[in-house]
Design brief:
heterodimer, A: 273 residues, alpha/beta, Rossmann fold, 3 domains, four-stranded mixed beta sheet, 37% helix, globular, B: 352 residues, alpha+beta, 60s Ribosomal Protein L30, Chain: A, Phosphoribosyl-aminoimidazole Synthetase, Chain A, domain 2, 2 domains, seven-stranded mixed beta sheet, 10 helices, 32% helix
Chain lengths: 273, 352
């Protein structure tokens, strides 16, 4: 997160300039910091898919209970099913099957994926993260494709239940409501994000500090949208390995080692493109 | 506290001082400074050269020498398995040992943030004394400065050290050739994870201890037995073993092949890394070294290291190869191959 490029700088650069930016493993830690420092405003950057939403919601529930006035979250939560739908809907998309994110489904369950699989006739396999999980998930998708099937299967059954985690879902729905969301590289997808409900407005940093986030100009050279739709490979990008590297990423897929572009970069020069 | 540390505390009880925190006055060179140094530093670390209390240390050293320096900023300053004091001694002692030198003399400089408790400073001093005795080195010169609150972080320490090169040592990356075996002296990632477990905001319950220790006696004994068959010694502190291997591969323009299953790691450390999403090959180590040795002596080297108290978990982790120069390729636990690259940023700041 610290190195994701912003419009003018990234958080690491802001930290070097003196901003009090801390890495925490839990939003509840941010609540504690707010409690211990009543004269400081504490804003937790609440980012992620549905996986991290329950903990972030819980932090607001705690802060609300403690009647804290100096804690808020800056939300940028995105939802997986609308993103899958946006990718399949695109006529140019070359995606034949999906590995659904195992930890997202741990929270939300598998119910949202059945209609997608049926309508668009794509296999969707809920997959875990260990190497064997990924291999098995891929095998399950390939087997479906070869048998001309299109269903939702659960490879990560040791963790994921069909109904997900109802307690976590309750927490999310208590604090968040669904809204349209702009996705970097794709554009606006309807009903694909969370925002804090008005009744918890005091904990919504956007509302509290009247933040207007202008649409960030995408770097014109960054083709992350096409990469995510399977239309281009990272090395087909004009800036791959040139202006765009892990030390100076132009877009999200180059920042994290889990991003497609970063993964290709680490192997560049060793595999034939 | 270990038995050794308790004994040390009893041998050197904290003197009765009429102040319990260090203030700016203690660093300004006047009466207060003398009080702190006289009753503290000089008494605890006393030796004939230091006792001269001259502007610099005057001593005799014969032959080829090594010189090394390091600064220590670890936060928090007290962590499971040690404190910044022993880190400061062991760090420079080990760097000298990596050069193939017998460490002899250290300089010791403190930059103290005002408000540091004297009792904490004392505990750090005792740790320094203990570490020096274990390593067989002496602090012969030093400096103490105090900065205003907010301009430091409790205490920063710099140590520089000199030592004489072991008669049989011929340490240089230029000596590394294809076929050399790469040996790690013990379990990886322990120090980094010990720090993580007490780093504010990330605390978790564990019994992971930092592995900070002086390695010079171990190295000296290995040099006695294997001399110039030891091509390179290096200690993988910040950035972990991955960074050191990658840097070496790049500098010698040769490749390194290694396997994940060969890496020795304590179970608790491995679990903690997984919990926090950290890759152990990038996590900082302290009491650990990596040796590039001639293949012909690799097995004997390993056997000798296993008999040493600092090498019980040593393993051969890789081979230098003519293939894929400058690249470190690691075979993963399930048989796939991955490229080990440099981390673009800091996994965690101020771990040593």
């Amino acid at each position: 997160m610290l190195r994701v490029p912003g419009s003018k700088k990234n958080l690491l650069e802001a930290k070097a300039e003196g901003a009090d930016i801390r890495i925490l493993y839990s939003p509840l830690e941010a609540v504690r910091i707010a409690e211990d420092n009543p004269d400081k405003e504490v804003v937790f950057f609440a980012v992620g898919f549905e996986t991290t939403a329950p903990a972030n919601a819980l932090s607001v529930i705690h802060a609300h209970r403690k009647e804290l006035k100096n804690y808020s979250i800056l939300t940028s939560h995105v939802l997986v099913p609308p993103a899958i739908k946006a990718v399949i809907d695109d006529e140019e998309s070359k995606i034949d099957g999906f590995l659904a994110a195992g930890h997202v489904c741990t929270i939300m369950g598998n119910s949202e994926y059945h209609p997608l699989s049926k309508t668009y006739e794509v296999p969707i396999v809920v997959t875990g993260f260990e190497p064997l999980d990924v291999l098995q998930g891929i095998l399950m998708v390939v087997r479906q494709l070869e048998a001309n099937k299109a269903e939702v299967e659960n490879q990560y059954a040791r963790i994921v239940k069909e109904e997900g985690n109802p307690e976590a879902q309750k927490m999310i729905h208590q604090i968040f409501e669904i809204k349209n969301q702009i996705w970097r590289g794709i554009g606006e997808i309807p009903d694909s994000g969370y925002q804090v409900r008005p009744e918890y407005g005091g904990f919504d940093a956007k509302r509290k500090f009247q933040i207007e986030i202008p649409e960030a100009p995408e770097n014109p050279d960054c083709i992350s949208g096409q990469i995510m739709k399977g239309l281009k490979k990272p090395f087909e990008c004009s800036q791959f390995g040139k202006k765009c590297k892990p030390t100076n990423p132009l877009g999200a897929p180059m920042v994290s080692s889990e991003g497609a572009c970063a993964a290709y970069y680490h192997f560049s020069g060793l595999v034939e493109a | 506290m270990t038995d050794k540390k308790i004994r040390m505390q009893l041998q050197c009880p904290m003197p009765k001082l009429d102040f319990d925190v260090i203030t700016l006055g203690h660093g300004s060179g006047g009466v207060l400074t003398n009080k702190l140094l006289d009753s503290g530093v000089f008494d605890v670390l006393s030796n004939p050269i230091l006792d001269e209390r001259h502007d610099g240390a005057i001593f005799q050293l014969e032959g080829k020498m090594a010189f090394s320096t390091d600064s220590f900023l670890v936060s928090p300053i007290f962590f499971p398995g040690g404190n910044i004091g022993e880190l400061a001694v062991n760090g420079t002692v080990n760097d000298l040992a990596m050069c193939g030198a017998i460490p002899k003399y250290l300089s010791l400089s403190f930059i103290i943030e005002e408000g540091l408790k004297v009792s904490e400073f004392w505990e750090i001093l005792i740790a320094i004394k203990g570490a020096c005795e274990e390593a067989g080195v002496h602090v012969v010169t030093g400096d103490t400065k105090v900065v205003e609150k907010g301009k430091g972080d409790k205490i920063f320490i710099n140590t520089s050290g000199v030592g004489s090169i072991h008669s049989k040592a011929n340490i240089s990356a230029k000596n590394i050739k294809a076929g050399d075996k790469i040996i790690v002296s013990g379990n990886i990632a322990s120090h980094g994870m010990a720090i993580m477990s007490v780093r504010e905001g990330l605390e978790f319950d564990s019994e992971i201890l930092s592995d900070t220790i002086n390695l010079n006696h171990t190295i000296s004994s290995l040099l006695d037995s294997f001399g110039e068959h030891i091509h390179l010694l290096t200690d993988p502190t910040r950035g972990g073993i991955a960074t050191v291997l990658k840097e070496t591969a790049q500098s010698i323009n040769l490749g390194i092949d290694m396997a994940q299953r060969d890496l020795p790691i304590d179970n608790q450390v491995a679990s903690a890394c997984e919990l926090l999403g950290l890759d152990p090959i990038y996590v900082a180590n302290e009491g650990l070294f990596i040796a590039f040795v001639d293949a012909s002596i690799a097995d004997d080297f390993l056997e000798a290291l296993h008999k040493d108290e600092n090498g019980a978990n040593a393993k051969i982790i890789g081979t230098v190869t003519k293939e894929h120069p400058k690249q470190v390729i690691m075979e993963s636990a399930i048989g796939g191959k991955r490229v080990v690259s440099m981390l673009p940023g800091e996994q965690l700041p101020r771990i040593c």
